[in-house]
Design goal:
The protein is of the alpha+beta class and about 70 residues long. It has a single domain, classed as Structural Genomics, Unknown Function 30-nov-00 1gh9 Mol_id (Rubredoxin-like, Alpha-Beta Complex), CATH 3.90.820. About 35% of the residues lie in helices and about 30% in strands. It contains 2 helices and 3 strands, in the order E-E-E-H-H. The chain has a 3-stranded antiparallel sheet, with helices on one face. The longest helix has 12 residues. It is elongated, with a radius of gyration of 14 Å.
């Protein structure tokens, strides 16, 4: 990644995050979250919001087992 480039933060249906070059077409299955900036700014945002690295489907299965 180019430290001078602009990036946007993407999220998929499993609540996983990725940095993507700003202005490029978003890949299928990924969605913009509204954060754009430098690599460091976007990485800091992801570190702040992505506190549970487990995919959403796994979290939901684990939560369902605990509720049983």
């Amino acid at each position: 990644m180019d430290d001078e480039a602009r990036y946007q933060v993407l999220r998929n249906d499993e609540d996983q995050y990725s940095l993507w070059p700003a202005g490029h077409e978003v890949p299928a299955g990924w969605y913009q979250v509204g954060k754009e900036g430098t690599k460091d700014e976007c990485s800091a945002y992801v570190d702040e919001v992505w506190t549970d690295m487990r995919p959403r489907s796994l979290r939901e299965r684990m939560d369902a087992k605990q509720g049983s």
